[in-house]
Design a protein that fits this description.
Blueprint (H helix, E strand, L loop, with lengths): L1 H8 L5 H20 L11 H4 L5 H4 L7 H22 L1 H25 L12 H14 L4 E4 L2 E4 L3 H12 L5 H15 L10 H8 L2 H7 L11 H8 L18 H6 L8 E2 L2 E2 L3 H4 L5 E8 L5 E8 L3 H8 L2
């Protein structure tokens, strides 16, 4: 019971999340092995002062300490797993790079203007996770969201996560996270549609060698680009085991005849001695059968029988 609860609460590992986590761990190992200086790949005013443009692309995967790395990975899996399932692995990775680059450039400009106040360089996965949450809030139809059991407006969720990450995750730079949320909102409104990747282009890219390799990794879910394939992957058909749902069964005529209770002409829908009122259609009963589907939706079907159901059962079990 406890193991099943822990399994349900654990976020599912997807291909895009796995790629980001792998690159982050690889860069952290590289930094520890070669004993590089602090903030060597962080983004800040050095992007323009020293021409270190590569920091704009590397800073999301760079972490100074192992604690920071683990916490950033946890935030990414909790906040961005559902986003990847909504757009597909290819578009998730593309948006990750796009939003992180825009956030890094904007923060580097801000740090350049405020360079005399010694702004802290920024790094890690938290800014991009907040940006993706902001994109999600712009496209969702839910007016209310839940955080720790408390109902709050959906649009305020990025700011709530901003406060939480700033308080509990080390080396978190508040201005960079604010810029990331604003860029996520701008992208969600469609003002950066020029930088977006179309579904057709993403489908072509998905057939390339790297993404074919991601599809074959055991235990990791690869989310397709196509909505139809994505729906089949995330919502597989449910095949109930025999006997899971109650069904209304009628006694077969052949078995009833074999019992020798009456002639075949006296059987009405498999039950003996049908009343004349039922045969003539003068009385009817309505029976509703409810079927509950995943997601809490319930459909009800009504069946009208042109005979007295209770009378039929009463004779059928004699």
């Amino acid at each position: 019971m406890i193991l099943q609860t822990l399994k349900d609460a654990t976020p599912e590992v997807t291909s895009g999340i796995l790629v980001v986590v792998f690159l982050s761990c690889l860069l952290f190992t590289f930094k520890q092995y070669f004993i590089l200086t602090e903030a060597v790949f962080s983004v800040g005013a050095n992007v323009f002062l020293n021409g270190e443009v590569h920091r704009v692309f590397i800073y999301p995967f760079y972490h100074r300490t192992s604690v920071q790395l683990l916490l950033n990975i946890g935030v990414l899996m909790l906040l961005c797993g559902s986003f990847e399932k909504g757009v597909g692995t290819v578009r998730f990775l593309f948006l990750f790079v796009t939003l992180s680059t825009c956030t890094g450039l904007c923060y580097a400009l801000l740090d350049l203007f405020l360079h005399d106040t010694t702004q802290n360089p920024a790094e890690g996965l938290v800014p991009i996770a907040l940006a993706l949450v902001a994109v999600t809030t712009m496209h969702t139809r839910m007016a209310k969201g839940f955080f720790c059991g408390v109902s709050i407006p959906t649009m305020s969720l990025p700011w709530v996560f901003l406060i939480v990450t700033f308080l509990f995750i080390p080396h978190t730079v508040l201005p960079c996270n604010i810029i990331a949320i604003l860029i996520g909102w701008v992208y969600g409104k469609g003002w950066l549609s020029v930088l977006d990747m179309s579904e057709a282009r993403a489908s072509v890219l998905e057939k390339s060698a790297p993404f074919k390799f991601l599809k074959n990794i055991p235990g990791v879910r690869h989310v397709p680009v196509s909505p139809e394939e994505r729906r089949k992957t995330l919502l597989p058909e449910f095949n109930p085991t025999p006997g899971s749902y109650p069904v209304q069964a009628y006694a077969p005529m052949s078995s009833a005849v074999a019992m020798g209770t009456t002639s075949p002409q006296m059987y009405y829908e498999g039950w003996p001695n049908a009343p004349a009122a039922a045969v003539n259609g003068s009385s009817s009963t309505s029976q509703g059968l409810g079927s509950e589907f995943p997601g809490g939706h319930t459909t009800t079907q009504s069946y009208n029988h042109s005979h007295d159901h209770s009378t039929c059962h009463g004779h059928g079990h004699q």
